[in-house]
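Researcher: Quick one. two chains, 230 residues in total.
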Amino acid sequence: QQQVKQSPQSLIVQKGGIPIINCAYENTAFDYFPWYQQFPGKGPALLIAIRPDVSEKKEGRFTISFNKSAKQFSLHIMDSQPGDSATYFCAASKNYGGATNKLIFGTGTLLAVQP
Amino acid sequence: KAGVTQTPRYLIKTRGQQVTLSCSPISGHRSVSWYQQTPGQGLQFLFEYFSETQRNKGNFPGRFSGRQFSNSRSEMNVSTLELGDSALYLCASSPGRGGRTDTQYFGPGTRLTVL
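Model:
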């Protein structure tokens, strides 16, 4: 119940394409769903996050779609660029009453955007 | 504001030794979480500290411990190192507001190699 399942494991798209990365969860107590981007040798950097009270959120070229009934959420990257080539992680967290910050991460998606 | 800083960036130790890693959170942040990242297990939550108290703990053996100081800086310690402890250890800081899960900002990590 604590797992977050992420797919695909790897993804190759052409420049300008729209890669889509999907995540699914079981625990309905999760109330915060961030996406992180990680480049080799760096720590994960927050891209965008959503809470279950909205179905979609956009920030620049990044969009999260959230389906509460299906317990799924996905990341879309519009007009992808070679500089977007990185590993993307979805995550989920639930409030334990004292606002703890334990993130459960998906397994990651290695994205390659070809010029 | 300066980001999360971690020291040292790289460490090489031998089995049986112990190691201490340090994390300085973003100024004003009161919560510090630690994660272990390995190719096989991905990103796994170790523990979270808030106001010098451990607020949550992941499923790691007692060899892994941590603490937080009054200035919010945190250290984690791994005793009796094993080969499987080789990993990237990431620290994440967040404001620590009550009520809902905070956004977490990651440092660059400490790469630990156990020989």
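Chain B has a mean pLDDT of 93.
Researcher: Thanks, that's what I needed.
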